[in-house]
Amino acid sequence: MGFAMQCSTYAYSICVPRRLTPTLSFQAYKWNGFKTQSKNQMRLLCAAGDNQSSNLLASQRKRRKVVEHICLLNAKEDLSEEEENDMLDYLYTTQYQMGGIIAISLGRISAQNGDQYTHAVYMRFQRKENLEKFYENSFYLKVLKDHVMTYCHELMNVDYESEVDDDMLSIFRKGEEFGHGVEFVLLLSFNAGALDNQVEHALASLATVMLESPSLIVQFTQGLNFNPSSKEYTHGVVIRFRSVEAFEIFIRSQEYKNVWISKFQPVVQKSLSLHFLVDPVGTEIM
């Protein structure tokens, strides 16, 4: 059995519930640094207990399959603000011209990356059939021709199947928690010689760290890339952070760094990480 087929079941997604009390996750406590050791230890234990409860509840929830679509754009250097708005506006309106798109976010990438991508578009589809129709839709093809590739050098698409909690807010990414924040995209290419259990364990370890951060993360998905045009990356991950501060706390946390160094670096051939701010207006599905 080939590597792609062996890894096809490694998909995780959780909509992380916000706690009713204004407590922080394990990572946030660790970064804040309390003055007294006894209070710090007590709060860490409470946070760990809350995380265990969240993990147990998450494992008992009903799940719904979804298809995640990531499009990365490399815009031309002389792109004006007017042209940028035109491009993003037309991409955003594609959700109104066809069925199957149930969530969308897009924006300018906040920091430079090795592949020089400047903008990112994230979409969620109900099924693979909806995604296939999307790629063939005449309105979308015209948008690409007249309002995207006119302003861009190139684009790359990554698609993967995952699961989310079977409720309307989680599936459609609706509600106050999805109205703002930071969209983080991580693309991975695992070594061809990596053992199946190493890949599975790396993804599961990342999922565990994210589950332990409900005060930082609203939802995350990850899965095997099935788009034949971008096989340089085998897997995709999308994480919605609650805020810029939440994103920075997580990325700088020792837990995330440890997982990356110990689980991913030995088996990852190539990776690309980027993020963009989510506009409160640009995330509502009408």
Give a brief description.
This protein has 286 residues and is an alpha+beta fold. The chain has ten helices and nine strands.
3D architecture notes:
InterPro entries: Dabb (IPR013097), Dimeric_a/b-barrel (IPR011008), HS1/DABB1-like (IPR044662). This is Stress-response A/B barrel domain-containing protein. Homodimer. Helix 4 packs antiparallel against helix 6 and helix 8 (196-211) runs antiparallel to helix 10 (254-264). The protein has helices spanning 3-6, 26-32, 37-60, 81-93, 128-136, 138-148, 168-172, 196-211, 244-252, 254-264, and strands at 12-15, 63-75, 101-108, 119-125, 152-165, 181-190, 217-224, 235-241, 268-278. The chain is of the alpha+beta class and 286 residues long. The protein has a single domain (3-283), classed as Alpha-Beta Plaits (2-Layer Sandwich), CATH 3.30.70. It has ten helices and nine strands. The N and C termini lie far apart (44 Å). The strands form two sheets. It has a five-stranded antiparallel β-sheet with strand order 1-7-8-6-9. Strands 3-4-2-5 form a four-stranded antiparallel β-sheet.
Throw out a few tags for this protein.
disordered N terminus; 4-stranded antiparallel sheet; HS1/DABB1-like; Dimeric_a/b-barrel; Stress-response A/B barrel domain-containing protein; Alpha-Beta Plaits; 5-stranded antiparallel sheet; Dabb; globular; 286 residues; alpha+beta
